[in-house]
Design brief:
It holds the Pfam family tSH3-B_UBE2O. The protein has about 1100 residues and is of the alpha+beta class. The protein has 17 helices and 51 strands. The protein is about 20% helix and about 25% strand. The longest helix is centred in the last third of the chain and has 24 residues.
Amino acid sequence: MRSLEINDNVAVKANPSLYGTVTRTNTVSHEPLEDELIIAHTDVPPAILHEFVQTGMPPRGYVFVEFSDEAAGSSLVSEDDLVLLSRLFQIGDPVKREGSSMTGTVTNISESYILEPITTKPDFAKSCLGFNPSVMGTCTAECESRLPSQFSHPNPHTLIYDVPSWEVQRAQDLVQDDYVIMSGWLGIVDEVEYDVVVVLANGSVVVVTGMEHLHIPVPDYGKPLVALPEPDGFIIPDILASRQSWSNTIPVQRPRPGTFVIVDNNSLRRGPWLKGSYTPTTPAHGYVLDVRAGNSFVAWVESDPALGVAQAYHGPPSPSPVLHIYEPNSNFLEHGGLRLKENVHIYDKGLMPSNSERREIRGPQPGAYPSLGHAGEICTGQDHAVGAHVIFRDPIGAAEKYKGSKETRHGQFNHSSLYVQGGWDVNEFKVVFINQQASVLWQDGSTTTTDSTQLEEYGLFESELAPTDIVLKREGLRQRPVGAGRKEVSGFNEMAFFERPHDLLPKSVGIVQSVDPDERLARVRWYKEPKIELHSSGQILDPESKFGPIGDIIEDVSLYEIMSFPTLQRRRNDMCIVALHLMTPAHKSESTTLNSADARSPKASRHDSGRSGERIANSASIPSTTSNVGQAKSLGEQTATDWVGQVVAIGLDGTTTVRLGAAQPCRDLRVDYDAITTIISDQEADGDADEDIMDVDSLGSTYDFYSDGSMEAIEERVEYEGGRRLDNDSGDDNWVSDEDMNEDEDQSQEFTDAQEEGQTGNTDMANPEEDGKDAPKARSSQPSILHLYAALPSEEPPAFNVLEREPPPDQFGLHSISTAGKFLKRIMREHQILATSLPAGEIYVRTYESRLDLLRCLIIGPRDTPYENAPFLIDLYLPAGFPAEPPTAHFHSWTSGLGRINPNLYEEGKICLSLLGTWAGKHESESWSEKATILQLLVSLQGLVFVKRPFYNEAGFEGYEQDKRYLRESEQYSEKAFVMARSFVKYAILQPPGGLEDILAGRYLPHDLAAPQNSLLWTVIERARQLLEKSDQARHAYYDGLLDSAGSTDDDNRVFLRPLSLGACVMLKRTLAELQEQLDQLLHSAPAANNSAEKESASAQQ
């Protein structure tokens, strides 16, 4: 059996009645266990179980399973003791097939269930319903077995089989993370308080508000009890009294009708009572009849854009964050009598358009995009796991459809009033088995439909490009520092891009049509004349950006030549807001496409009042067209719900199909990119922007926008009127007022020129001597190797040195308060160790007389690794708690937006290492202590991070080096790291970091210009050139073995690369050409270079 994954539905082989969901695996890092009921339902060696309880990380070959029966708790189980029942996906999920390097995206789901009526629980049926479930019968010899081979059930006769997912819906009315539409606002449910109706053992009925008053007993399974949730604080006597008849109880988490519960006496006294009344002899246990939402707490994240127009761009006032979804109902009528408030709509993601509302989706080109039928036939996936409770959307129709076998009634749905106790509808079902088929669009453009258990979730630390992704081409890309003048536009500068946030102005924007994952090539269809501007290093899309019509030019490009940003993407299953209100009634009924030209109106900015600070909507405005203001809805009219939708399909022509699931009736609409005003992503923030790691004091307030909250900020467009932000946020000085209109016109022309000219090479260059600013000052000249040659030392630079100069402006921690005076003696000891023990020619450290708490470190990549001969810059800051606390480290990433060069080294500077306290090591000895030294830290970075196969440095992949499951991903990651590392050489010699000029010159440049072959730069160029030649030969010879950095296969201990892909060759050739050009420039201008070096030396002596 293939390895299990999180969210897999599994059953214990020895006891199939124990089935549930995998919640922890060895391939994903986890937080320590909280209070959980853990029972050893299967045999696990004590040492393994003990380590898991301590760390929360299952060892390899084991998974942690949460069983569907809450009283059964959870267990650490060997994968060999489990059977995989089903693996569930939703549209938009990235997947992979075993043994293939190609990834794909789920585009459609076909899902069916086997359901178990809750009325088949004998105790519940007899005591509460007055009904003996045995009359429903059991299987006889005439019954046809309809159970899957991997699943068993004690009474298959009572089950209902092959129920399509769209026929049922979640039984619970409201849960956390549901979307709610009310009074022109879209909100996300943060928390729900439930009212639980319980029928007690004496037949009386009481309502319990809040699940904290309910417990369930833990049966004696005859298995060891590993962990039992501990109550918080003192247990009041009422609770103790109600639980005294049971040896072990746990707080209930998810009660449903039919659940046996224990109620604390205080709740019984309070009531309210629907039948009977409280007496001291009232039994404190019974069964749940109903669970319904009481007070819910909602974060209102976005308003209807049409109402925003009517309210002078600010939108309607947001509703109260406390919401009760039902009309007042003191009698607690059955669910059929409950009525939602008139202006409250709960978005139902499982709802599909009826046949009459399904509309044909026109493809871009015949055969260009695989058709999955009508848009209305796209099923997004219900997100129901095994054990979930559901109800039929049409119970009467279901009773007519599911009559079972004519002869035996095997599989019959008995919908009858006999199952109603005092008006409570208990026609509810438990999902016991799920069969799912997934349609997948693969990277090469092909599609397949297969059983989901044959697919694997592809959730690695860096995503692969896929068809329909939107990308930018590096060629012609220009940038401007955030906060700088609007005219300070220069060619794309990779080093500056990651040293501080920049705005990006791409010339070429396109849609990926297909990807060749082995050759690292993408086929891209480019927009005709896109006008795109990205702010804050690609985090925010400018309000005036327009994609426009898609063009006819399709081009094959290297994956290393294009960039992708989350703000540009539309992901299947994302919630979104569309400008549907601007379409005329005729347009709505006759067309499935909403063009951006029809959808331009002022857009309300994000409204902060009444919104939880932990939720961020990703707002986008459409450029102003005042002629449409009169079409806006007024607050006095009933609020429509057809402005909120869900992305269900994306075309290769840039169009998006949105399902208007709250509209009446539900329908699908095809729109172009510019017509979607907001994307709301459910993804959790990845936490990369860690204030403890990043030098946030040098970044200003730029990161404030997306540093808090669990909603990931994908895109923001903010509308302006008269130069004033309509959300009253005056903190962004990157925008202009009416007085600057002339400058705006100049900038607009410059923007156009940038689109037409492409990259001119006039790239701003960092000036390490400039002081007092966060970012280096631009030089007027082009970066050149001659500048570095002027710093060439006459002798080998020392490995460690204290500089008399001030720290350069890009030094991490520069804006913090100096802490050196607090531990000067320890610093002197560290200096002594560094001066005598650093590996010669491999690690260099510099510090400053004025700031001994700041260190600048250079590590030369080890031989026979993807990082061979490349320079890596790491800054250290010694905090006030040093040496009790570890140094804070910052990695200077020069990866050009290609992703991490190492799983431990993040693009924004974070370094993941146990010695730094940024990663929990398996053993205490791996963590920082006062005995640890900076030398130990640097050597650990060199030996543990810059390794031959860096892919396996990612959390959860340790120990898989000998497993072929991730072999291809590892090889592709090493290739990318090698190619990017050659670029690091280019950046270092053209824009040498301050304080390291002499080291870089001494290590990389020829000391004798007549013998350049004796330099490290020559070695880098020559070995890479040989690798290119050998890779080309290997491709023609169909050789796929390992090579070293020069393409040789002679020494098995030195090989680490497969022959380079075509995409990697394109990028590497370009980098080598630039390096060779610089070296030739140095060699051909030898006299001038020597004179410059002599002048620099004389100046230094003076």
